[in-house]
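All the exercises in this workshop are built on plain-text protein records. Sequence and backbone structure share a record, each on its own labelled line. The question running through the whole workshop is how a given chain folds. The record below serves as our worked example for the rest of this section.
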Amino acid sequence: KSEVRDDLIRNSQPILANKSQMLGMPQFGLRDNLIKCELLKNEDAYTYIKNYRCGWVFFLGTYNVNGQNPKESLSPWLASTATPPDFYLVGFQELDLSKEAFLFNDTPKEPEWMLAVYKGLHPDAKYALVKLVRLVGIMLLFYVKAEHAAHISEMEAETVGTGVMGRMGNKGAVAIRFQFHNSDICVVNSHLAAHTEEFERRNQDFKDICRRIQFRQDDLTLPPLAIMKHNVVLWLGDLNYRISDLEVDHVKDLIAKKDFETLYNHDQLKRQMDEEVVFVGFTEGEIDFQPTYKYDTGSDQWDTSEKCRVPAWCDRILWRGKNIKQLHYQSHMTLKTSDHKPVSSLLEIGIKVVNEESYKRTFEEIVRHIDRMENDCIPSVSLSEREFFFQDVKFMQHQAKTVSVYNDGQVPCQFEFIPKLDEPTYCKPWLTANPAKGFLAQGTSVDIDLEVFVNRSTAPELNSGQQQLEDILVLHLERGKDYFISVTGNYLPSCFGSSLSTLCLLREPIQDMPLETIRDMKSNSQVSNPETDKPQDIPKEIWMMVDHLFRYAKKQVRIALFSPLLAGSNHSVAEALLLFLDALPDPVIPFSFYPQCLDCCSDSSRCRQIISVLPQCHKNVFNYLIAFLQELLKHSAHNRLDVSILASIFAGLLLRSPTKQDLTEKRKVKEFVQHFLVQTPSDRDIDEKLPE
């Protein structure tokens, strides 16, 4: 049970020697940080690597189950070793392919496969479930021998979707990180983009997962930990890399001859790793088993469907780190539930362990040394620069500059960016300093990244000229003086984050308009010349995006909105439309109407009455977008869209909550929008608003 599982982890009290543990501790004061810093520098004096011949054995397994229920014992896969492993890390993909799992991330198959795994574990040991994490059909289970649980700490889990719209969970990854003794370990289970020709999309999925998965630390003021910041990284899953440049019959002939070396030379993942495009620094064991995809379900026969897929090693296991030895890497052909075969890898991993007597002795020596130090000197640092200018900052495009801080004083120092007088935070919301606090030993330096990022919350005031990219950072030294860093820049106004009413008044691109003109328009909605300055019915930017999708993508399968695997401008335009709607400072249905919309969500006529009294430009945009979505539904035989899917995607954008929504509100918002996707006679006049 989860309560028992949590107790196993929380009772762990590892000795604080590892760097990530140290920096994750609450900041007590200069003396405490100095002790931690010295312990880190002298770590080799009290730790040793317990490795190969006496190391810990990790069983890694991956299985794409193609939406099937468990129909056979998993023991031939999970209990295939002579002796029981210390750890099980078992990953599944396509656990559930139903629409409900996709939309609500809920599936009855989770407990079914959990039970199948539990029954399939090695019978000669007792195991505790430490963690389960799932995103739609991607699931990772972490079991450990009960006697090792007390040495596991800092358990965290994260998920990231890279599927529909580059965000949804039909593709993506789940990951866990934990501390075992004094080693940081991260495990990733991923399901990357499909289809032979989409290897570059798979490469991008890998990079997105590495960039977007960030594990929080106990001290929330410290930056989160990325995947590659761990001592050991274990990566498994359906990576979907295929065999290139060979016909299917040639591939099958090589498999029959067991000429895996020739076949492996045409493997996309091998080629991409050789070119150092993805998985840089990772290792994969020698593949001496036949491809694990694609079989006829329930058999060992290659795909006999009309598509006749070329066999491929889609299911892979890789690792990154030191003191790791692979004991085996194999597929398990006896399992026939899916069109994939499961794969396993047995790794022996050297773990950093603390010698408690040596630790105590080192700690006492450090404390005695600090007691002898004179700490009456004032800390001092020098900065590489004090003025920074960010040129041509754009909406949601990250820019960063680095300031080096060097401790040129006689004593260690602790630094922190502090708020200015009467301000709640140390910087404006579009600016961050990373790290924002830290510790510097004498004669050392740290690089601080000053990062500028304008999002939907900060763009409106920058677009209108009410705010500028200007801020002063105050770098404070404990027991020392303050240093001031000037950050300025110029922001290029964008239609993203601009109001509908403002955009309707603009006939030129917003970047070509003087800020004074935009400010005047925002403060004075009256037009000076009714003939030339008459507002447009809808912003030209919305018309251009919808017009493109209407002309070129309305019959496309799930349109570009629903398949980032479809390359080209349709996907880009669709994502831009969704981002545009999400960034509106006041949504299509303004915030002031939100409570009324929830109250009448079950009454179609009252819903339509609310739309009729919206401000004119908001009403025009709503009717225009609804007409476009209705047009998409007319082609559902081709694009496979339905009312539920479109409502799930667009409801939260058209009718956005001013605060965080709960599940009940989300359902009401979806119900409200669904009324308009079912066309009635009163809707026919808005068809005229569609591009011809």
